[in-house]
Amino acid sequence: MHVLVPLDGNAPAEAALEYALAAFPDAAVTAVCVVGVVDSAAAADQLPEDRRAEYDRAVADAEAVLDDAAARADGRQLTTEVIYGPPSEAIPDYAADVNADRIVMGEHGQAGASDILLGSVAENVVRNAPVPVTVVRGADAAGVEQQILVGVDGSPLSTAALREAVTAHDPDRVRVLTVVESDGDGPDDNAAAERLLETTIGAVDTEAADIETVVRDGDPADALVDAAATADHVVVGSHGRTGIDRLTLGSVAEAVVRNAPVTVTVVHERQVD
């Protein structure tokens, strides 16, 4: 496995690197820092003098961030790379170029005591990435994750989310939730919800794990965010894509990424078998 971690010198990104090293001990980890002044190193030669000085400072800062990350890798081999361009594009593009299997990144910050305000870069990377994106948050994000919550709705994408959860984590720690919606696209009664859960779990190789199932009533986004309060990590599928190579987050996935109090992984349509 190859894990890509974008860094910017701030605490949330440092927590993401710590998480990646702890959660994926056998993975190859690459830390990148983005210089947004130009789209490539070669383009720096065309910059006017004042912009060239800005570029040189940005490169020096990026290299310092990566050197610090390498020093904190605690003996793990860490590949580092300065990349160029708008971060929201450069990070997903680099992930595709190096065939990364996952992006792990920090959230932007918090607004108020409990409402998470996701930074625009993180949000756009979640939208645009060709691989699952894990947005790390929580005071003990690098600790052992005891409970993995997966939201499912019967779609192939939610099955892919469950497959991601049982592959990346201990299946016995996985809890699967679906929501009864009287006027939505999900199951409209508890019996239908139980059948949906059974079918979804049956479609995934869970190695005979004892996976807990939960049925809630109401709005799917609210139910997942509420249930996340007793979980350590939430895994959801993105809504889908618009255009050829850019996805638009569905309302449920976006609400969970923005508001869940724990680490969230978003699985894209590209991960559907």
UniProtKB/TrEMBL annotation:
CDD domains the record matches: USP-like
Family matches, as SUPFAM superfamilies: Adenine nucleotide alpha hydrolases-like
Name of a matching Pfam family: Usp
Residue stretches making up the UspA domain: 2-137, 146-268
Family: Belongs to the universal stress protein A family.
Name the record gives this protein: UspA domain protein
Species name: Natronomonas pharaonis (strain ATCC 35678 / DSM 2160 / CIP 103997 / JCM 8858 / NBRC 14720 / NCIMB 2260 / Gabara)
Species classification: Archaea, Methanobacteriati, Methanobacteriota, Stenosarchaea group, Halobacteria
